[in-house]
Amino acid sequence: MAERRFGIGYALAPKKQQSFIQESLVDLARSRGIDLVRIDTERSLADQGPFDCVLHKLYGDDWKRELAEFRVKNPDGVIIDAPEAIERLHNRISMLQVVSELRIEHESDTFGIPKQIVIYDKETLFDRQAWEGLKFPVIAKPLVADGSAKSHKMALVFNHDGLDNLKPPIVLQEFVNHGGVIFKVYVVGGYVKCVKRKSLPDVSEEEKLGSLDGLMSFSQISNLANNERTDDKYYKMMQLDDTEMPPQSFITDIARGLQQAMKLNLFNFDVIRDARFGNRYLIIDINYFPGYAKMPGYETVLTDFFCDIVQKKEKDGVESTGLDSYEVLSCDDEVRRIVSCDGDDGGDLNVEEENRIQV
Ligand SMILES: O=P(O)(O)O[C@@H]1[C@@H](OP(=O)(O)O)[C@H](OP(=O)(O)O)[C@H](O)[C@H](OP(=O)(O)O)[C@H]1OP(=O)(O)O
Ligand SMILES: Nc1ncnc2c1ncn2[C@@H]1O[C@H](COP(=O)(O)OP(=O)(O)O)[C@@H](O)[C@H]1O
Ligand SMILES: [Mg+2]
Ligand SMILES: [Mg+2]
């Protein structure tokens, strides 16, 4: 009998397609019975395929309608992940709300999110009452995280003078010294991988007091190194070797908790370690379908994940994948759970002035 093959359609923006759909991934998936096929977004999704599975990172109502139509016409098809679940990550407030809802006990380490407020208009920006409890320096982040260059443009604000340049809606989040290193935790179904990346340097007491401009803008700090990123080489070059990794089991528990709460299979989150405590971790960002190609061995991890989904669907029906009802793929049983922790990131932020921070 001929080997059963599976078709996975992908709908990605050109830049994402280029970084993610590499020959090495396509070849490995093909050798294991999975054909990765580009979805033509100029045509109706439901008229293409057939696809056992749809993988996507696109924004907007038109695309949501395409997915809805696909669901109706392909009750056996699996959508990774549900657009309704992904949308939570398009707003920097709802994104982190889920962290506050997690209940995870760990012997010595704690986690949370930095103090933050959302500002919708200039009036509130200058209203000292709205600021109660929040201390300078703060990072101003665009409220919307929609993948645009603008949504990554941030500013470190040292004092009230810096506020003049900000354009709401923004989130103001306390800047927390963390030794200039950020931990990026990549999640793919049941797989969790934590890596170290360069971050913003700590701010000294003198800098806090002495900044002339009151503000410094920056964008995608941890992505500044665009050379090959095998971790050993990157860690040496960026002088990250000495930074201790967070406890693996702790990070895995947080990853699992987030995954279950958000009902997402493909995401990463950025974690910093509060330099004042050393055992306090803060989650500052969660991204849907991040740059997996930067993760060592991404081809194997992603292919294993695809195989798990299609095999589960084949064996027990689409409900068993959990993805039909927008649940996440279960982390036990058939889903291989590899956890490793070996140790990134960053247009018009809403600032009129530009001083690029060099790290
Ligand atoms: O392109 P890459 O590889 O830098 O991936 C970006 C991610 O970098 P990371 O994997 O966390 O280092 C990046 O993560 P950060 O927000 O920089 O932490 C985002 O996920 C970005 O997607 P979007 O612009 O928010 O939609 C991701 O961009 P897209 O590839 O989705 O456009
Ligand atoms: N509260 C914070 N304290 C210290 N550094 C931060 C904080 N928030 C963000 N950063 C730094 O700014 C970078 C970009 O912020 P992030 O929220 O991850 O936005 P993006 O979605 O563009 O990656 C982070 O990678 C980190 O280096
Ligand atoms: Mg980030
Ligand atoms: Mg982000």
Query: Would you count the extended β strands for me?
Result: 15
List low-confidence stretches: 330-359
Number of domains: 2
The hetero compounds bound to this protein are: MYO-inositol-(1,3,4,5,6)-pentakisphosphate, adenosine-5'-diphosphate, magnesium ion
Strand order of the largest sheet: 5-14-13-10-11-15
- What radius of gyration results from the CA coordinates? 21 Å
Distance between the termini: 58 Å
Total helical segments = 11
Question: Mind telling me the CATH class of the largest domain?
Answer: Alpha Beta
Percentage of residues in strands: 15-25%
CATH topology of the largest domain: D-amino Acid Aminotransferase, Chain A, domain 1
Shape: globular
Structural class: alpha/beta
Mean residue pLDDT? 87
Would you identify the CATH H-level superfamily of the largest domain? ATP-grasp fold, B domain
| Major sheet size, sense and barrel closure | 6 strands, mixed
